[in-house]
Structures are given as structure tokens and as C-alpha cells.
UniProtKB/TrEMBL annotation, chains A, B, C, D, E, F:
SMART domains: HDc. It comes from the Bacteria. The keyword Signal does not apply. This is 3'-5' exoribonuclease YhaM. Keywords: Exonuclease, Hydrolase, Nuclease. The keyword Oxidoreductase does not apply. One of its GO terms (biological process) is rRNA 3'-end processing. Residues 167-283 form the HD domain. InterPro entries: HD/PDEase_dom, HD_domain, NA-bd_OB-fold, NA-bd_OB_tRNA, YhaM_exoribonuc/phosphodiest. One of its GO terms (molecular function) is nucleic acid binding.
Length: 318, 318, 318, 318, 318, 318
């Protein structure tokens, strides 16, 4: 949609003017200190988001400019309380003839869906333990579509379309190398754990556009839901044997500690390693995305999920 | 088995002599500082347990005097390192003709099994929400036998035969009164939660004689196992509706905090109240049993599960 | 004051108009970004409170519209930054002829004072230990009036007129039933502990209208103040015996842990149970009031005193 | 009692022989692995203590060699499980004609009682606020005798006869200098707080010989007991004014944090400083006593009350 | 600069008018809700700071009124959201002919630089251990100039010009008295530790005007930097012996606990005492400055570095 | 030394007899309850260790059988208090003619020294940043010999000869693969951090035979010692630039959190990743060694450095 020369909304700087299509993420009504109504809009594309105020908004505006509506907007980027804000000069809802789609405005994994599914399939193909392989196949069959759409989290890491599959595929790549360096690891168990550990997110989260938690997600969480579902699928497929309980344990313990949501800590080697690989990939994802936004010699914004630390990009990172 | 006049092994004091049948709980081989073999036996009846040493033990002794064997023993109660120890004068394994059974040597709930099952049935009968009632009935049908045998925990509270059912029945009695005082409570939901909250113990623990944790118990724990089983039973019975997920939430959250084993804290009124009633009954059970063993003006032994506190029994407790 | 048909200020929704008397809880002067003065008023009745702005306020307005003043106001309920705000159309101070009183605007316990005092008297009458009974009688005699006016806390639970007495009476009802279920409990000690445990609030808090902490309250707190006063009253009445120190211990330990304000944890059975009953009633009060404000299928606002949790009201709560 | 040339029991080393009078601190009966009775005795003088075994003990021995009995003993110092142990060669109870007294065997403050009382009197004399001075005088009058006998703690710091007075006098000396360096400090308030802060130990602890906790000490602790007593004495003396509550606050908050036993943290400048001076003197006392026992280049034993640290004595401490 | 009669900006109250020179600490551009630009200025002198708004600011204003610029301002003190705000009536940058200097607008230690250096020299002169004395002299020679300019911290305690030297000199005074009261202390070691413990702040902080952290300060912190520098200086001066490592230990451990920035806790007596004296002086400094700003009977603002406590100034502080 | 058929002392089971050379790790004198002297010996070879008692030991025995002495021993493996114990039948010190060496009895890394140094050299050769490469080369030159002898820790992980080099080489292998998967990582910085992060252990620990902490190790720890040494070497080599401080930061922060010994948490991407790789390799090492000792279906002993967890080896680990 945007020409090659055009900056995304996450890339504009104070003083830029902007003209293009954006997706409304949130729309909230307010009153100025003089009692006049206005709308606060969060507008986004795949590169980021910006706040904008629509002054003297009418009832009609309130009904038109709502979350998940695409709009054509032109304006100027100002600063308000230290943050960029778009001063709206013109605004209209997108028309069918504009040829724009919600999916154009959402950040995506840097790897194509086809490639992700190919990688996933390769890993399952490598597995030799038939029990683990059958369970994994059943899950992939059931959840493949959602897996390629869902983010891996509502925010923090891999919070973009196909983020869940991207996270799994990256973890599988680490696991493959770790298994070469530490051949004691049971690769099949580790692969199975990686593929299933976060699939419960598909039931915990509402989707990728305006990601919220489902009722089940709030009251049970993705971990117990997956433990339950592994048990059910194994029962349906009449699979028995220690693999089932061990795989449930890997999912159950992958947050590492009770206070982080795992009622049992890892008590099997591959459970511990799954937890570490999960940490590793999630942290790399957060670090790389935050450091991409700053220049050498600068610190990133504070990263909430990394103990609120702000990271430095050395000058010798040319 | 013991005559009315006879003290149980948990009631003897230093200097007493003892003659009767006891159950071996543990038997461990040792060597004296002179290199001679001996057996350390933990001997018990329904009133308590005592340590005994069998000096100069033979290979045959080692094969005979093993855990879960009943023995006829006579001896004297001495003190060793501040604890009572039975000095063995004679010892032989029980014979079929002695007419003694393992169940005679195990502490039991102070209420008969029949009465417990009656109370449980009454509570289920009171329930009006058909969904909750059907799920609860299915569980009771499946687990009734084990429920009346199992303890509620490996140690600390209700750690005796039928302890699990005793704990449930006591909690139901509290819930009934609380519902009268606070009619906002959903009695059916609370009853269902109480009856199911700890049934997973039947899969987590090995039984009542020498209670240990099963593999599933160690790797998953009774809470996620029950969440899974509620899901499975609801599916089998084709039950749908919010009751299922709410009931799973009650079980999941009944330990109150992630660091105590509940990945979600209580987020429904009855979940919070279930947690409090569970605490209330478990603590009353521990307090009453510990205070029963001391005289007014004395402190109890330290209670590990109550932050290692030692409780005082006032002098005016006549 | 309000007609049957009229909504209280805690019940209005966005878009409603409002016309009636309200009590000013807080009045703060501000300046608009154009440098013009205005007043921010927190207006309340027994059902709740709302914020309102009085634009272009004069010096006279600042002197008139102050905390604890009753006003006649008409206006419209708008939304500002996600919260309801009253747009003032007309405003005047109440006149003597309006026949309104501060006490009309304050939330009250759902049980009448007479009934509360009757319940309290019944409980004292049931007590059989003369020492405990005499101490309790002395306190009730001294503090009866304040007890029926004070809230049980500045906020969170039972924070309304007669809240303190309401909390005590509810706890006595629980204790009565618990004593039936667990006859080992010393009812007299438990009753005495319940009646006295929070009476120190009368010295810790300033009153019921705009509840703040007294200097003594800030520097000592209600717990040590009550321990001291029990000692003094016992001395004056020449009461001796273990009851005095045990009762002081019940008050001292009723918050359960040092980090919650009890320098000693409960070390007597009834002290532990007093702590649990206190928790139970305070939590029921907070839960019921928060859930009353939402519909089935919704979550409550976050409850600060319950670990900031937000509770769900199931759909099957018809 | 011991000649100048003789080592105290805290000074002997492995291989020494010992002949002299010692006080029995504890006497416990045991049985050897051959079933023979023996007594484990903890024997002490003012320099320290040692364990000894009396083999083949008789009923008469058990009745004779009990706690707080002085004995004449000769033996050799051996090592057992890494600790010194006295091998008893001869043992008899002390006779009146031996001219030995329990007080000879107890460690004492390094400053004489007369000097301690003199220092205390000087400080009170310096005080200018009549209210604070009157309260302090009343307490000293009431507790002077006990103050000069009691230790400041059952163990850790100043755990010797007159330890309480020694601790107070040392703290007063620090306060005097601090007031010179920081004249903003209210010296009278600080002096009053120092003198009263730990006097409750006189009611919390049983005495100086075999120091245990009283029932009041266990259930209430010295801090609330003193807060109560300051209130009572002020009432008796008809003293009013903020000094009373501020002084109660200093005592209440002197442990610094709720989890250390102060339900309120210091909220007055002198309360904070009292807490720091208390820490300072207690730590100096523990450090000096532990470092006295080791040579330069060595580490002390672990000090439990100092986070279990072991301190190094530098080589350049000549 | 200010006449004797004139209030500093930290002393004005609501309603005062102000006319004088102030230093701009921060200048931030904003937009009103009507989209008009304005500047938010933080203006300060040695007595404190105030916020001011410059409405309808021009590009030229933005270039002129920047941090570290001195301005001549007249205006009125209003209240905005509970805080004082200066309403600007006139504003111009200072001219060379105004004869004002940045140093006039910065708070200073209450003791003159000459006196501070004199006190420091006296302490070094008192030292008798030649190794410690040589190291200290080398540091003072290297850092004397910065030491007399730098604050001891970016905020909280001694956060004013010469604050670092003031803190050191105050601590030396305490150490001198403590050594008299506890002669076991090694005075030379304690003096050396005090003088060096915070000198790393000179490398950690940017300076005294707008104090920020340097890159080294953020990535390493003043403690490891000083440990390194003591090692380097000792190597350059070819000093060997345990003094070097002990002195490094004193610096390393002076924050007391790992979670407060000391990877090793104090393990030498003087290290523990250095930590306590540091606490003592820092707390006295914060307390005295906060209490100076309030009247008897009032509480101070919350002190972040003292666990966010608010301290009470008793009425009897005349 | 041991024939192929012979079990190492870490491999014997109860009932085995043993005949061979072992190294005395510890020798402690004790007294039986009959007062007879004996020696408790900890005997080891490269496979593990066992306790043995030498009864009725003579003064000569005490002088002969001391730590680090090699002995020829024959005996039988019994059980004592649940642990294996060697019953000594004959014992003599090794003779020069026995041809045994201390290094034969110490566990070694599973990779040869030559191979380790080769791997290390390869990694340095791959580095392209000349500053980082020069610093690393200087350290390797200085510490190469010790690096190949020292363990990586006194216990827990890589606690064997060449353990330090083994740990570094394993981490470099992980880093190489991670750099391929996440090319944003600065490989040179990561390699430099890995090679230097633990070299301070060479100064912190006493060596490999009976590993204890040096005085410097106890008072400063390996982390600040290395930060200091990087600074010194950079200064000597006249290296400047951000690489030095960043590399010091990587070493300083590699324990991840202040409470784990890093006064600054990782604030540079490669610092965070170094911390994770360190965790990863240390945990793999502990897990593999513990799981090697158990059979499928069993749990390992508790691993102190892994939160005291005991890990399960699944049955399907054929």
C-alpha cells in the first residue's frame, strides 16, 4: 500500500507530514477543559502506531471512527508530552475501492507462512519416537491455521501475525543445534515440547488484531488448557505410555517456576532445556526489535518484560 | 486388638513396658561403630509410632522384618537423643492365627465411612444446578471407593484413612453455614468445588499405608490432573456451558497463589471462599490434633505446615 | 431525600441528567491551560461519588463550595478519560430549609444500629468466663457510641457508618457456627477477641465522614493501642490471670504476620481462628459489594485489598 | 576462683587437662548403642562452655548432676566430631565449703554495676524536658535492680550479666557524640528512647543464668509490653502531651521494620536514629567478641545474628 | 544576587509575586489542547525550583530558553494540580552585564570548600599506617578538585555542590568519635575506607549542574570502578600487602548487601562500620533537610530513599 | 592404574569388595562412644569418593593418613546410615615404586587439554575486532597454564581438572551456532566475554585438588577481580575505546542479577546472551552428570545448584 519511498507510521519523526491509510486500534471519546467533545485515536500500520486527536468530534464521527476501521488520513507529526502525536488535517473512512485490508496494517513475522509451515513439517518428519510424533501431528492438524495467524503473546515478544509459528520455528532451530552439541538430549521430546508448549495461546488469546484474553484464558491460562488437551488427544488416539505424562510435564513446567505460572518446575532434562530455549528466543526477539529502533551510542526504551531494563547499543556496532 | 486398659504406642511414656502387635512402617539396616549389623525399625499402630533397634540382626531378620509386616513385640520404652525408643526384648512376625490386619494399625478418621458417604450424598442431593450436579455425581461414582480410603495429604492435615472424605465433609458443613450467613454465595458451585478440589489426591498419592507420591503426582500434581479430568468427563457427558470452566477454575485456584501451586489466583467469589474454607478446615485439623497431645500451660510441637509455629494451650482450658 | 424513582449518584450512567442534593467530599482549585480558575469537586451520596468541574470559579465559589458542604446540583453525566463526570448546569449550597443532613449522604451498614447492639449484647450474654466477660463489658460501655458510628476501615471493607459494629456482628455469627462445628474452640475467648480486635480503630481513625488517620493512629496503630488499653482496663478492674495476656495476644496477632502489622503471629488456637474469621468477613464484604455493581458475564473493578484482582461474575448467576 | 595461671574453660585447647569448678548449664540423659545410660553435660564458667560425657551414669548421678549445679571436675580435652569435648576423670558436686557461687560462673559486662548506674544517672540529669525526664526516672526507679542483672538478649549481643545496662550506657555515649555532630537531634528524646527501648526485656526474659522466654515474652514480646507500660506510667503520673505518644513510638519502632518486630517503622527523626544506634552498638559488641577469639589472618565463627557471616581479622591488626 | 529581604524560589508560597534571576533546569515543548505551542520550564536557584509555562512560545523562544540558561523573570505564584506554578509576566535571558553565574543558582554544602579540604587533610595527617596513607594521598591528589565540586549523589542525600566532600568530612567526624568509644576499631582503615568509598562518583556522575549518569556509571557503577582504580594505583606505586585487598573490600562492600550493589557483604569489622556510618550520615542529611521545610506538628513529604516514609516533627520541637 | 575390569570407587555397590589405590581427600580424628580414637577418611579416585573408618587409629596413623596422601587399600563396601562406607581390611601409604600420581585420582574434563587449547585458539583466530582480540590474547597468554588445570567451580558444575577451559570451549560452541541463527549478535564481543567471564576463578580458587577460596576470592570475588584486571591490561597495552568498558560490563553482569553477584544486570545484548549461554552450559553439565548415575525410571539425587531439584530419567530413554 505504501510506496517504497514512504515512511511507515512507526518511522515518522517530529515535523514530518503524513498522508496515507491507517488502521484505528482504539478510539476513545473525551471532553476538553472547555467541555467540547473529541476523539483520541490510536492509528497504526505494520510499522508501528501513533496517537491522534480529532477535535470537535460529532456523534457521527464517534460512530464512524471506531476500532478496526481503516481510515485515510493526512496530517502533521507534532510532539505532545514527550511523545509524537499526529495533528489531523483530513480524515475519512476507507472505501472498498481503496483496496486496503486489515491484514495490510498488522505487523507480520519476518518469515513467510509457507516457509514456517515447511520448517515445522521438517522437524516433525525428523522425529523418531512414534508416540510423540503422533501426538504432535494431531495438534498441528487441528491448530495449523490458527498457529499461522496468532501472535506468541499479547505484547512483549513475537507479538505480530504468525508470531506463534515464528517463535516455534526459531526454537526448533536452536534445539537442533543444541542436540548436536549435547547429544544426551532427547531430540524428539524436545521437539514435541517446543511445538506444543505455547499452542494453548490459540485458546488463551482472542486473535491478532486487538489481542485480548478470552474468559478461559483469564480463568485457566494456556498452560493448564494444554495439559488437558494433550490428555484428551492421547485418550482419543488411545495412546498410552510415559510419553504422555512427560510431554504434559514439559508444557506444565515451561515457565520454570510456580510464581511464573508453572505449578511444577522442570523435573526432566528436556523440560529444563525447553524453558531455557524459550527464554533465549523470546529475549533475542525483544532485544533485536528494541535495538533496531536506536542508533549506536543510544539506550533503548525500557523493556518491561526484561525487568524494565534499557539496553545500550555500543558505538562499535557500525 | 488392644485391651481397653492398654496404651497405644503413641501414648507410652519413658519407662513403660510394651507388649503387643505393631506394624513395621520402615526398616533400615545399619552398622554399629564396631561394625555389627542392626535394624532400625519404625513401629506403629493407630495411635502413633516409635523407633526400635534390633541389635545383631541376621540376614534372616533383614528378610523378615520389612515394611508393612505386622510383628508381635515386647520391650521397654527408653529415651535416646531426646526421643522415646523401644528397647526390644522379644520380636516375631504375626501369624495368620493372630487375627490382626494392616487396617487395624492405621489411624482413621473420627467419623465412620458410612456416615461420611451419607453426608456427601446429602450435599449432592441439595444441589439444584443440574450441570454441576451431574459432573459431581460422575466423579463420586468413579472415585467413591478410593475417596473413603485415601488420606487428604501425605502428612500435616487429615493424614489418616478416610481423611480425604473427612476433609470434604467438614468443608461442606462450613459451606452450608456460610451460605446461610452470606446468601450471595452460590451454594451449588461451592459444594461442587469442595467435593472435587482434592480428589486428584487419589492419583497423586500412592495410598494410605506408606503414603508416597506417584510419578504423575510428582510431575503434574493433583491440581492440573483434576482440571484435565473435569474437562474430559464434561466432554464425555457432552456437557457444555460456563459451569465447566468455572469449576475447573475453582479447582485450579484453590491453593490461592501461584507460589502455592495455583497458576491462577481465585477470580470468582466462590473460588476465593473455597480457598478460605480449605485453609480453615485444614488448620483446625492440625491445631486440634496437636493441642490434644499437650496439657494446659504447655506449647505443642512445632507445626511445619503452620509456618513452624508452636501453639500454647491456655491454663483456663480446663 | 431522593424519591424512590431517583437514581443515586453511584447508579447514574453516561448520558443521564441529575438533579438533587449531594455532599462535597473534596474541593480542589485548578487552572485551565488558559490560566482560568476552576474547582474540581468530588460529590457524593450514600450510593457513591462522582467528579464535577465548576469552570470559571470565583473567590466566592472557592469559599462556598468546600468539603463537607451539602449542595443542590443539576447537571449531565459525561465521560472524561474513561470515567463518568458530572457537567454542572446549576449549583447552590443547601439551605436549612432544604432539610438535608450530612448523615443522609453517607453509606450505612445494611443493618440498623439497634439490631447491631442487640446482637452484640446477646453474644456477651452467652459468655461464661467471668473474666473475659467483664473486660468485654467494660470496653463496650466505654466505646458503644463510637462503635456504632465508625467504619471498620478508612477504605476497602466495611468503610461505611456502623461498619465497625457490622463487621464485629458478622464475625460473631461466623464464630457461633464454627464453634458448633468445632466444639474444641473456646467460644468465650473467640467472642472476646472478635469484639475487641478492631475497637482501636475508634482511636486510629478520625471518624466516618472524611476518614483520615489520627497522629496516634499513624505513630502507633490500632493494634498496640488496644493491647495497652486491655492492660489498663484489667489493671483498673484489678483483673488478673492468663485471660488478660491471652486476650492481648489475640488482638496483637490478629493481622496474622509481622509484615501485616502483628509483631507476633497467632500462637493460640483461637488467635489463629480469629485471624481467619476476620479475613473471611472482610473478603466477603469486599467481594459482595464489588460484584453487586456488575452484571453476569462481567469482571469487577480491581480490588486493591485483594491483591488487585478483578473478579468474574458467572453467567449462570441469574 | 581460678588461679591467674589457669585457663578458663572457654580458653582450653585439644590436649589440655583441666581441673576446677564449673557450672552445669544443661544435663541430658542418653543411651549408648549398647543400651548403657550416660549423661551429656554442658559445663561452663565465665569464659565459655564445653560438652562432657559421664559414661555409665547411675540414677544417683542423674539426680545430682543437674542444671545450675556447680561441680568440681578434672579431665582431658579431646576432640569429638570437630568440637572440643571434656573427658571426665573425676567429678563431684561443689560443697558449701568450696566457697563458689553461681555468679562466679556467669560472664559479666566489662564495666562495673556502680559505674553503669552512675553513667545512667548522669544522662538523666542532663535531660531538660521535664516530661521525658519524669517518665524515665519512674522507669529507672522501678526496674533499676533488674536492669543491672539482666542481659540485653538471650543470645547474640550483650548476653551476659548487666548486659542490658551495658548496652544502654554504650548507646547513650554514642547519642551524646551524635548530638554534638548533629545538633538538630533532640537529645532528651533520644536519651529517653535509648533508656526505655529494651527495658521490656526484663519481662520478656527469665533472667541471666539459663535465659528463656516468659509466656508474656512469647505471646506479646518486649516491644508491645513497653508501649503499654509507658502508657500506664504516664496515666498514673497524670502526664499528658505529645511526648508520651512520641516516646511510645520510639520504643514501638526501634526494630526498624514490621518483619523485624516493629509494627510501625520509625516516623520521627530520633526514632530512626535510635534504631541505627541500637544496630551500631549491638553489632560492635558481636564483632568485638567474635574477633577477640581469633588471630590475625583468621576468620571468626559464623555470626548468626549478622546474616551468618564469618569475619576476617587482617594480618596488619598487630 | 538576591537581596536579604528576598525569598528564594524554594521559599515562595501561593499568591507571592516573584522578580529575579533563575536558572533553567529543563525546557520542554508542548501543545495545548487547541494545538498552540508552549514551553514548560523548570526554573531554579540555590533554594529550590518551580515549574512555569511560557504560552504561545515562538521558534525563537524555543532556541533561547534552554537548559542551563539563566533568565530574568517576573511572575506570580499560582497553584496547578496541587503544586506551585509560576505564571510568567515577563521573561528575558540574562546578559553578561547582569553579573550572574551558574554557580550562584546551585545549592551548596553548608561548609566552605576550604574548611572541607582542611578537615580532610587533618584526617589523613592523623593516619599512621603508611600504606593506607599513601594510597589515600594519591587519590586526594588526583581527585581533589572534582571532590570539592561533585555532589555525593544525583538526588536524595548531599545532592549539592561539594556534597561529596561534605559527606566524607561528616563521616570522618563520626568515625573519630566511634574510634574513641570503640578503640578496637582500626582508625586508619576506617578513615581510608571513608575517604575512598564514594570517590568513584566523580566518574559515575556527569557533574553538579544537571547531574546524570555517565556510560561507565551506568554499565559499571562507582563501586567496581573504584575497586579497579585502587588496584591500579597500588600497582603503580608498587604497594603490596593485605592493606590493598582489604581497602578494596571496604569499598566493594560499603552498600552492605548484593541487592544494594555490593557483590560481597562486609566481612571485615571496619567494612561493616563504614557501611553503618555511611547510612547514618546519609539519613541524617535527608532527615534534616526534609524536616527543615515543615513546621512542628506536620509531616514531611515522602522520602523516596527512606522507604518512602513521611516523618513527623513533634510539637515540642519549639 | 585400575584394570579395565575394575570398578572405580564411584561405581562400587553395597557388598562389593575393593582393592586398589585411592587418594585421601579428608582425614578427621574421632572418638567412639567408648573413648577409642579412629580416623574418618574420605577416599577418592577420578570416578568418585567413599567414606571409610580406620578403627583404633594410632598417633602414627594420624600422621600418615592425611589429606592428599595416596593409599593402597582393600576392603568391603557396607551401608551406614543410608550411604556406602568402605570397611577397611588393609591400608598402607603408596610408595614411589607404586607409580601412582595425584593427577591419576582427579576427575578430568572429557576432552583433552590439547583439543581444548586448539578450540580456544580457533575462536580467537575468528575474531575480527582488533581491540577485543588483543585483550583476549593477552589474557590467554597470561593464564593459559592455569586455565587448563583449574575447575570452573569449587563444586556443582565443571568441578574437575580443565573444567574451566571445558566450560569456555562448550560456551564458544553454543555462541558460534547462536550467531548463525541470530546474526544480529556481535560474535567478537560474545567470544571475548565468554573467554574472559570466569578467568577470575584462577585467582578466586586455590586449585583443583582440594578446592577452597583464596582470601582475595572471599573478600572480592572473581567478578570484580576480572573487571580490575581488564582495566589494567587495557591500560598497559594503551588500548582505549568503548570496547574496554563494554567488555568489563560483560564480565561484571554475567551472573545476571545483583543478588547473584552482578552489581549491574546485563545492559548490552551480548551481556544478556553471555549470561544465558553460561546458564545453559552449566545446567547441561550438572544434568548430564547427575542423570548418568541413574537408570531410566529413577530420579537423580537433589541438585543443590538447581534449586535442590531431583530430576527424572524417563523410561523411554532406552
Amino acid at each position: 500500500m505504501n510506496s517504497d519511498l514512504k515512511k511507515g507510521i512507526g518511522q515518522v519523526t517530529i515535523g514530518d507530514s503524513y498522508d496515507g491509510f491507517l488502521l484505528i486500534r482504539e478510539a476513545t471519546k473525551g471532553l476538553t477543559s472547555n467541555g467540547k467533545p473529541f476523539l483520541t485515536l490510536i492509528l497504526s500500520d505494520a510499522t508501528g502506531e501513533i496517537e491522534a486527536k480529532l477535535w470537535d468530534s460529532t456523534k457521527e464521527d464517534e460512530a464512524t471512527f471506531i476500532a478496526e476501521q481503516i481510515v485515510k488520513v493526512s496530517g502533521e507529526v507534532n510532539q505532545f508530552r514527550g511523545k509524537a502525536q499526529l495533528k489531523i488535517l483530513s480524515l475519512r473512512p476507507a472505501q472498498p475501492t481503496d483496496g486496503v485490508h486489515v491484514s495490510d496494517f498488522i505487523e507480520k513475522a519476518p518469515i513467510e507462512k509457507d516457509r514456517l509451515i515447511e520448517k515445522l513439517t521438517e522437524a516433525i518428519f525428523e522425529m523418531q519416537n512414534p508416540t510423540l510424533q503422533r501426538i504432535v501431528r494431531a495438534f498441528i492438524k487441528k491448530y495449523q491455521e490458527a498457529l499461522l495467524i496468532y501472535p506468541a503473546a499479547a505484547k512483549n515478544h513475537h507479538d505480530y501475525a504468525s508470531g506463534l509459528a515464528h517463535h516455534i520455528v526459531s526454537m526448533l532451530a536452536i534445539a537442533k543445534e543444541m542436540h548436536k552439541l549435547y547429544p544426551e538430549l532427547n531430540k524428539d521430546l524436545l521437539y514435541a515440547g517446543i511445538i506444543l508448549h505455547d499452542i494453548g495461546k490459540v485458546k488463551e488469546l482472542s486473535g491478532v488484531v486487538t489481542t485480548t484474553y478470552t474468559l478461559e484464558g483469564k480463568l485457566l491460562g494456556h498452560i493448564p488448557m494444554m495439559v488437558e488437551e494433550i490428555g484428551m488427544i492421547a485418550k482419543e488416539m488411545q495412546i498410552e505410555g510415559e510419553e504422555v505424562v512427560i510431554l504434559q510435564h514439559l508444557v506444565l513446567s515451561h515457565h520454570g517456576k510456580p510464581e511464573w505460572g508453572s505449578p511444577k518446575p522442570p523435573l526432566v532434562r528436556e523440560a529444563e532445556i525447553l524453558h531455557l530455549i524459550d527464554l533465549f528466543d523470546a529475549k533475542m526477539n525483544m532485544l533485536n526489535r528494541a535495538l533496531d529502533k536506536v542508533n549506536p551510542g543510544e539506550f533503548t526504551e525500557r523493556l518491561f518484560a526484561m525487568d524494565n531494563r534499557s539496553f545500550y547499543k555500543p558505538l562499535f556496532e557500525e
